[in-house]
Amino acid sequence: MGATEHAMDRDNQEREELETIEEKGGEEEEDEGEEEGDVEKGKVGGVVEEKVIEEKDKERDYSHVSMLQRLNPTNPLRIAINGGTRVTTPSHHPPPPQHSQPRSTPTPTPQQSLATLNSRKYTNKISLFLFMVHMVVAVGLVCFLIFKGIQGLIVASESVKEKEKRVIRFLLPQVEAASLLSISLAFVWQKAVRQWPHFMVHFILWSTFIMSLSAGILLICFQKPATAGVGVCFITFAVGNGLYACWVSPRIGFCAKVFIKSMEPASKFPDLNHPTYMMLGAGFIWMSMWILAVVGALNFYFPPLIIIALVLSLAWTAEVMRNVANLTVSRVISLYYLRGMQCNTKFCFQRALTRNLGSACLGSLFVPAIEAMRIVARGLNLLEGEDEFMFSCAHCCLRVMESIFRYGNGWAFVQIAAYGKGFVRASQDTWALFEREEMEPIVDSDITSSICFLTGVCSGSTCVIMAAAWTAKVHQPFTATISLLTFFIGYLMTRIAMALPHACVSCYYVCYAENPENRLFDRTIKDRLSLIKSDRDILVPTPRVPVPRRFSAT
């Protein structure tokens, strides 16, 4: 108000001065007798008029600039005068006082949460260091044993040469053929699970029973002590597999439904399988060198110990390869669920091979042991009955499993891939999410890991049938050894390929536990939880809740 009135007063003064100048100029023009004075006065009047106008223009511009400089930066409609603020309104009355309201805090932007998704630190560095040392030693040992094998063929005695030639002739072709067959079966299993998940869950359960039983019967038919012992192991496993298939039959429908829902995002990433292909190719090359090293170990000291060391090294390496593929798929799928992002699979694969490799190495050591202990715990939980000793064993085993599952589980790979956490912390955080959403009964009764395990057993049994029949025809004394080697190779290669569906299911559970209201999830898990809470769903007793039935009333 004060600024505008001041500006109006200045304009009025300017008009009055201009009018007086014009009147003086008119009076001078009326005096015609004094031409010289008139001209001089006219010039002087024009000069004065021009100077006055220029000065007024400068004052007006300065006044306008000063008014703009006094504008409040937070609100252009407010003008700062002497440290205060006034609103420029056409009314002469002051505006009514407004009560100050507290500003609402801004909601966190996605960038704040995305910062945790791009962790650049290496996880589980000690495990990474140990694995790298192991790989250096393993590569050196394999190369040395291959050299010893070649040396045995060239400069060794005739008996050694004949022995190695016989091994290469009657063992190497079957093992290489088993490697190729296992890779083909791995592709078939994964493709079939992605195309027909509901049918494949039934098929895997019962085809594993049939193939393992057939392999055991075939080995017993050779009537050799070694093959009979291996055949008994296959038949025992087949019986347990058949009982397990009957036991989990009420959960097959839900497992198939989860497979269907969890595999839907995979179709949005055409190159999602490329890391698995790379791992299978690297696995095939490494296993071919490994077989040659086994042949060379026969020409070195303590062959049984060296072969056992090679077997353990191959098991760890293949498991790390599987978990690298698992981490790659888990990062791609989890970021799609959590942030709606479509990540580059190649970059996720590079991250799994570098920053998260330590967690993959640590998890590869503990997760298989944890899964085996989980199976034992569930078996004891079913067999405890009224026997005091069995009850004590089951109770102790269940307590151990409760602690182990909290500090190490296979679900941790999702948070390792998404947030770059260490294996133990990711296991704790993941299990805490399950407890928060009361999902422990669902994840404890999940049979996805069992289905992936059984596909490996089925592929291994198929390789055993092929290799045993071939070896029995050409050189029967090698039948038991080749059967074990081909089963091991077939199992490992298939497990690498099944990392993709396993990772998709894990992401489905873990990402749901983190954000159940995500629009990408339907009511599959919610309806399952409702059935469990209302006691309308049949669940296998979980090994995680050690509640003694005999003392539950006390």
Features:
disordered N terminus, two-stranded antiparallel ribbon, 74% helix, 2 strands, globular, mainly alpha, 21 helices, 554 residues, disordered C terminus
Descriptive report:
With 554 residues, this protein is mostly helical. Helices cover 74% and strands 1% of the residues. The protein has helices at residues 2-30, 35-69, 110-114, 125-154, 158-170, 172-195, 197-221, 225-247, 252-262, 274-297, 303-339, 345-354, 357-383, 388-407, 412-419, 423-436, 440-444, 448-474, 479-497, 499-514, 524-533; strands spanning 78-81, 84-87. Helix 9 (252-262) packs across helix 20 and helix 11 packs across helix 15. The longest helix has 37 residues, at 303-339. It is globular, with a radius of gyration of 41 Å. Residues 1-7, 27-53, 64-115 and 540-554 have low confidence and may be disordered.
Topology:
Layout: H1 2-30, H2 35-69, E1 78-81, E2 84-87, H3 110-114, H4 125-154, H5 158-170, H6 172-195, H7 197-221, H8 225-247, H9 252-262, H10 274-297, H11 303-339, H12 345-354, H13 357-383, H14 388-407, H15 412-419, H16 423-436, H17 440-444, H18 448-474, H19 479-497, H20 499-514, H21 524-533
Antiparallel strand pairs: 1-2
Helix pairs in contact: 1-2, 4-5, 4-10, 4-13, 6-7, 6-10, 6-18, 6-19, 7-8, 7-9, 7-18, 9-20, 10-11, 10-19, 11-12, 11-13, 11-15, 11-19, 11-20, 13-14, 15-16, 18-19
